[in-house]
């Protein structure tokens, strides 16, 4: 990480952009756990410790990131925060490395896998200059309901298989996943029970995404990263990578913290944050800061 900081001044910075959420200069084109096009996911954040990706996150404005509470149970002083990254082994000109000012974890999180409240707000040390490679994702308001036939995307630098790290040059991975409703997801988990999981482990503040047959999923190191769905106002943060039983196991889809469930909590803690309201299937209107009402 120190090498990136030392070489940063020699790299050409991309042109600044206004803070419009959910916009990407490049659309995703590859399905199935493949390298993402550079710049496709400009809100993607990596929390690094000793040059290793520990967790992901999603930029929501110039100074705040949404991630998972379980990423910060041991503190945050040890983390470097990467934005504008693509290949972790080859720092691009868009790369910005910063640190954490504070972390606000939801009070319901109890430091147990599968706990409710696995969401955290991370304040960065200083506001960022936004550009084509560093942009915020849109936040859904508390009324948002995502259609279960919606295909969404999960991204990160986590393991490619359980116990197998992403190989160099550590290119950001993307995977298109269908959403799964709570009842169906609980039925899947109950049909292949794990000894450390209760009955119906998927709670009201969670959403599932993935494939019942397994084979494709988020994995270790992707925690805290984005699950985004497209609407006409832009890409919207539906979920935060939270927990799962192994990686890509059959009948054990990925479980994500449901972001609309915590919209009011986010609004209470992040100054002047804006949301989008879902009016219909994949249709949403941008709401001004703290308005939380349908247009």
TrEMBL record:
GO molecular function, one term: serine-type endopeptidase activity
Top-level taxon of the source organism: Eukaryota
Family annotation (PROSITE patterns): TRYPSIN_DOM, TRYPSIN_HIS, TRYPSIN_SER
Keyword Mitochondrion assigned: no
InterPro entries: Peptidase_S1_PA (IPR009003), Peptidase_S1_PA_chymotrypsin (IPR043504), Peptidase_S1A (IPR001314), Trypsin_dom (IPR001254), TRYPSIN_HIS (IPR018114), TRYPSIN_SER (IPR033116)
Keyword Protease appears in the UniProt entry: yes
Entry keywords, A to Z: Disulfide bond, Glycoprotein, Hydrolase, Protease, Serine protease, Signal
Cellular component terms (Gene Ontology): extracellular region
GO biological process per UniProt: modulation of process of another organism; proteolysis
Entry-linked SUPFAM superfamilies: Trypsin-like serine proteases (SSF50494)
Domain Peptidase S1, residue spans: 30-271
Similarity field: Belongs to the peptidase S1 family. Snake venom subfamily.
Protein name: Peptidase S1 domain-containing protein
């Amino acid at each position: 990480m120190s090498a990136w900081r030392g070489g940063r001044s020699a790299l050409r910075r991309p042109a600044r952009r206004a803070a419009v959420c959910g916009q990407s200069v490049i659309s995703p084109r590859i399905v199935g756990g493949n390298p993402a096009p550079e710049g496709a996911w400009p809100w993607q954040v990596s929390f690094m410790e000793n040059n290793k990706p520990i967790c992901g996150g999603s930029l929501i404005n110039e100074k705040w990131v949404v991630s998972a509470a379980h990423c910060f149970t041991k503190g945050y002083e040890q983390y470097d925060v990467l934005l504008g990254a693509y290949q972790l082994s080859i720092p691009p000109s868009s790369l910005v490395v910063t640190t954490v000012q504070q972390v606000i974890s939801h009070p319901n999180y109890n430091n147990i896998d599968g706990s409710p409240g696995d969401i955290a707000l991370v304040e960065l040390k200083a506001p960022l200059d936004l550009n084509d490679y560093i942009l915020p994702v849109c936040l859904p308001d508390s009324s948002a309901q995502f259609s279960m036939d919606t295909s969404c995307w999960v991204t990160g630098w986590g393991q490619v298989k359980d116990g197998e790290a992403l190989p160099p040059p550590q290119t950001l991975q993307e995977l298109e996943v269908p959403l799964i409703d709570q009842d169906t997801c609980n039925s899947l988990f109950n049909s292949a029970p794990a000894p450390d999981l209760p009955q119906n482990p998927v709670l009201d503040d969670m959403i599932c995404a993935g494939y019942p047959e397994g084979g494709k999923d988020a994995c270790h190191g992707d925690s805290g990263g984005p699950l985004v769905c497209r609407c006409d106002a832009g890409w919207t943060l539906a979920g935060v990578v939270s927990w799962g039983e192994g990686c890509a196991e059959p009948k054990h889809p990925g479980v994500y913290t449901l972001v609309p469930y915590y919209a009011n909590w986010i609004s209470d803690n992040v100054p002047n944050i804006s949301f989008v309201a879902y009016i219909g299937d994949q249709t949403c209107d941008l709401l001004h800061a703290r308005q939380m009402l349908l247009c």
